[in-house]
Amino acid sequence: MAKQVKIKDIAKMAGVSPGTVDRILHNRGNVSQASRTAVERALAETGYRYNIHTSAVSLKKSYKIVIAIPTAVKGEYWGSVLSGIEHALEEYSDITIKCEYAFYNQFDIFSCRNSFDSILDMEPSAVIIGATFVSETILLCSRLDSLGIPYAFIDSVIEGTSPAVTYSSDQNACGRIVGRLLDLFTGKDAGIAVFGSRRIGNERANNSMGRMSGMLQYFGSIGNGREIRESKISVADPEESEKDIIRFLDSNPDVGGIAVLNSRGYIVADTLASHGITGIRIISFDLTVNNMRCIQNGTISAIICQRPELQGFHAVKAIIRTLLYNLKEKNEHHIMPTDIIIKENLPQYREIYNE
Amino acid sequence: MAKQVKIKDIAKMAGVSPGTVDRILHNRGNVSQASRTAVERALAETGYRYNIHTSAVSLKKSYKIVIAIPTAVKGEYWGSVLSGIEHALEEYSDITIKCEYAFYNQFDIFSCRNSFDSILDMEPSAVIIGATFVSETILLCSRLDSLGIPYAFIDSVIEGTSPAVTYSSDQNACGRIVGRLLDLFTGKDAGIAVFGSRRIGNERANNSMGRMSGMLQYFGSIGNGREIRESKISVADPEESEKDIIRFLDSNPDVGGIAVLNSRGYIVADTLASHGITGIRIISFDLTVNNMRCIQNGTISAIICQRPELQGFHAVKAIIRTLLYNLKEKNEHHIMPTDIIIKENLPQYREIYNE
DNA sequence: TCAGTTTTCGTGTACGTCCACAAAAGTAGG
DNA sequence: CCTACTTTTGTGGACGTACACGAAAACTGA
Question: What's the Å distance between residue A22 CA and nucleotide C9 C1'?
């Protein structure tokens, strides 16, 4: 509880007026080098920090944050992200922050381009990006960079950009978690299957690949000679995927555990259930409504979840802090924890993730 | 982003002066019934809310929060709680909040009495209580109630009190989680052992009992005829506990999984390791340094953790909100999620829980 | 050196609330 | 109806920062 150092104090120490200190704090320019160094030393010595409250009181400017993420469906991944974003905005309801959305279809590159093109017209103070398409994102970021508009990444990292902050999760670790859990869940002689996405080229699939390598890495490292069999399931066509699954299991009868490296675990679970196949442990990703249902009825053993809610929440808070304090904290990268969810702790997480 | 309604607006609507509105908002009394009803209607109509910033700016009063919890050791349970508390206080560094601590020895009822007796002398604005001894806590709370001092519970609930807010976790669910995990981790024919605390009468032990009933409930519900064998381990005497453990396993050779319902899982793990016993899955509670070590080296399969950090964090934030907004949100009870931690997601959680 | 120009600096007001103090209204007793 | 007292109400200054505006200083070129 050190006593608050005020702008006046800094001004006195540096032998200038409060106005000059203010100019330096806000990079408003028109300050001589002499004053600047004097003030900056005083600032550093005292460890001055804005009083956020008085600052907010007199702040004239109102910020506009643009949220550029894939279309958010309640109960799905990006829906949770969005609910975290809205939650964070509520916390700052006492300062004027406008918020606009630039949703895009994560499976349609043209929709992404359209959406990203419109962002600059919105004149944002900051942008929060849930990236899917690499080169489109890089283009957007370089434009933002040249305008000095800070941006934050949620869920994924795009190389060749300089976000103020990134919130994502460690997909490789996710894969290793799945590996260990399946290893623990199944007998030594059971085979392990991995179902990935058929679709490639978008970010979710990249996530899926990171998970895959993590999982293979796990089974490689323990060296107990487990057979890992890969397969793809089609996202587009439910009937086709059902046939795929049954065909796969027919030709691999020893499989005791299945990892579904995207959020479609419920498709596999439902298929097994409808064919009366039991005794196979399934692990999948994301707390979607369908996956929750399967956790409830026991057809999915565990769900791996990466806190989309918190990612959105923290990204907004961080970007607002960047704006308020005029920070240049470049490329701060936060890895969200990976939650393991089973039937028994589902209710508690449900409260956090949804609503 | 509705336009801010100001005190002046309310005053105009109710036909009184801003001072009168302020008096009503802060229960400062000396207001006629007529003004009160007029103002309260205007308040309700507009849905007026403080502007927290300007409020904080002009607030003369400084709050003092007293933290009454068991002695916090860094890296242990209450140490994490404390670090969450300190973290929350940092977020409010712009308003003057003093903080005093009233630590007590959770195994010594006299130390608790001494500590609790000293709290009122500190003239707290609010108290945060980590309760261990029931009747002492009830006494403290009734005194606080009569003085109108709000208090929050962390970690446990004491019946017969009216806290402003409670942050705890669902011990029964924890027990069921342990049950399911051990069930998944071990073959059908393996026996399951439960190690509880020998010590009783304090809250941790109560937690331990809640976990026990949850675990038995799980195995009762699935009805696969698992043998559950209970034992106690002595906390006080390491050598004695080591002997206990070996003796127990000698007479129960079929045991394939052990649940340690307190934070002492590392004792069991170390004992097995030093006797060259492998193949037994151990699950324990709390991310202490010793337990983390055992997760790392593979002797403990999973740790159940109840976010002590977050409990402390949220309790402080909630109690400060109560003070700032003068709220009377009685008995709001938040259940923290229960995290399942294995070797692969340990690093991510470590970042959250410690530091 | 001096007028004109640009850069740098200081002053003063506004923000919405809290709260102290003074003013006004109400009450009771004579 | 007046005084003494209590209750109720209005007013104005303070909080620390942001920012506009105008003053002062520094620089420019002749």
Answer: 12
Comparison of pLDDT for A226 and B248, the residue scoring more: B248
Q: Is residue B96 part of a domain?
A: yes
Residue B324, pLDDT > 80, answer no
- Specify the pLDDT at position A331: 77
A161 and A232 together in one domain: no
Q: Both B127 and B195 in a single domain?
A: no
Kindly state whether B272 is in contact with chain A, defined as any CB-CB distance less than 8 angstroms: no
Same structural domain for residues A136 and A85? yes
pLDDT at B176 over 70: yes
CA distance A300 to chain B (A): 12
State residue B330's pLDDT score.
66
Domain count, chain A: 3
Find which of A177, A340, A351, A352 to mutate to test the B interface (most B CBs within 10 Å of its CB): A340
pLDDT of A355 reads: 45
Share of chain B above pLDDT 90, in %: 38
Chain B CB within 8 Å of residue A139 CB: no
Residue B355: predicted pLDDT: 46
Q: Is residue A9 part of a domain?
A: yes
The answer on A268 and A212 residing in a single domain is: yes
CA distances from B266 to B236, B258, B352 (A): 14, 12, 21
User: SS3 letters for chain A?
Assistant: CCCCCCHHHHHHHHCCCHHHHHHHHCCCCCCCHHHHHHHHHHHHHHCCCCCHHHHHHHCCCCEEEEEECECCCCCCHHHHHHHHHHHHHHHCCCCCEEEEECCECCCCHHHHHHHHHHHHHHCCCEEEEECCCHHHHHHHHHHHHHHCCCEEEEECCCCCCCCCEEEEECHHHHHHHHHHHHHHHCCCCCEEEEEEECCCCCHHHHHHHHHHHHHHHHHHHHCCCCCEEEEEECCCCHHHHHHHHHHHHHHCCCEEEEEECCCCHHHHHHHHHHCCCCCCEEEEECCCHHHHHHHHHCCCCEEEECCHHHHHHHHHHHHHHHHHHCCCCCCEEEEECCEEECCCCHHHHHHHHCC
Q: Which protein residues, judged by their CB atom, are less than 7 Å from any atom of strand D? A: A 4, 6-8, 18-19, 22, 25-26, 50-51, 54-55, 57-61; B 16-20, 23, 29-32, 34-35, 54, 57-58
Q: How far is the CA of B35 from the C1' of D6 (A)?
A: 18
Give the C-alpha distances (Å, rounded to integers) separating B206 from A210, B157, B168, B201: 43, 10, 13, 7
| Nucleotide D11: closest residue by CA–C1' | B19
Give the pairing of strands B255-260 and B228-233.
unpaired
Residue with tokens 């999948």: A284
Phi first, then psi: what are they for B341, rounded to 5°?
-120, 125
Full-model pTM: 0.81
User: What's the CA gap between B117 and B124, in Å, rounded?
Assistant: 13
Q: Are strands B302-305 and A191-197 parallel, antiparallel or unpaired?
A: unpaired
The per-residue pLDDT for range B253-278, each reduced to its tens digit, is: 889 999 999 888 999 999 999 999 98
Residues of chain A falling short of pLDDT 70: 1-3, 93-95, 198-206, 234-236, 325-330, 351-355
DSSP states along B156-170: ---TT---SEEEEE-
Domain of residue B313: give its range: 61-169+308-342
